[in-house]
Amino acid sequence: MLLDIWSRDSGCDRADYKKIKNWTSRDGPKYKRKYHLMDYKYDISVVVPLFNEAESLPELYAWIKRVMEANKFTFEVIFVNDGSTDNSWQVIESFAEEDAHVHGIKFRRNYGKSPALYCGFREAKGRVVITMDADLQDSPDEIPELYRMITQDGFDLVSGYKQKRYDPLSKTIPTKLFNATARKVSGIHNLHDFNCGLKAYRNEVVKNIEVYGEMHRYIPYLAKNAGFDKIGEKVVHHQARKFGKTKFGGLNRFVNGYLDLLSLWFLNSFGLKPMHVFGFLGSLMFFLGFVSCLIVGGVKLAHILTSTPAPLVAHSPYFFIALTMMILGTQLFVAGFLGELISRNAAGRNDYQIEKQI
Fold first, then answer.
1. Which residues contact 336 (CB under 8 A, 6 or more apart)?
2. Counting C-beta atoms within 10 Å of the first and last residue's C-beta, which end of the chain has fewer, N or C?
3. pTM of the predicted model, to two decimals?
């Protein structure tokens, strides 16, 4: 079904819309291409990664369904069971038996939130994709406004901002620290909460980014790197956890978050041109080491020419420092060269995001 219907925001006039809507019209495909419209099976796909949340699932699904029906959205809910050891999967199966809107993915073991989102994104068929946690701390009542911001305001991605949080200090303090760093490194200065589980995306965004490892914290940065730079934020309601306890430790989030951010920044900046960083650093270090060796040798030569006693070059610590710098410089340069060879032969070396082609 065609969901990108005529509106003042689509730029599509009524005459063209009638031709688009008429599936038997010869002009339908032409006008769909003109306005870059796409076919989607649903208005909204809700992707819910979860780990041991059996108690929360019935209330969460009933809440999502109530919101969707009240707003007359066509929808699907994709529950991704990340190796739960409770009866979460049995609950999901019972939903699917009663309602065709429910789909489930079950991992054999616990892989993490990023792999769960990746698999959910791969299966999503909605025009707008909503992600939310399964612990009832994210409110489905936010979905209609998030949908509007994507479809009418033209955002590629809208991230929730939990301005008032009900999390323990072990979770909130590391979150504030790495969010400040993420804003600085990514250049996305309008986001206050990169890691908020409640987000909305255009379908094209989730199909063109790869969420792996623990990169779910930086999906806005991944989207920006893929060319989707219309990123917005919405203040959302945050609720205290109703069942169980948080699955994430503060110190772990703090350390891994910064390491992931450094990895993402480096890959984005130098992933396709490793020689630029390793070659430059290697050349600089080799040059400084070589100059230092010349200075040490020059001092020795000056003593010889003036017939004054001079210590052996090998007795000077500066000689070994200079020699070490030259060796390290050579190794860095070779590392850059090898990285360049690997990059040139990588399968995705010419994988570019093309928005339009005529």
1. 274, 275, 276, 277, 278, 279, 282
2. C
3. 0.69
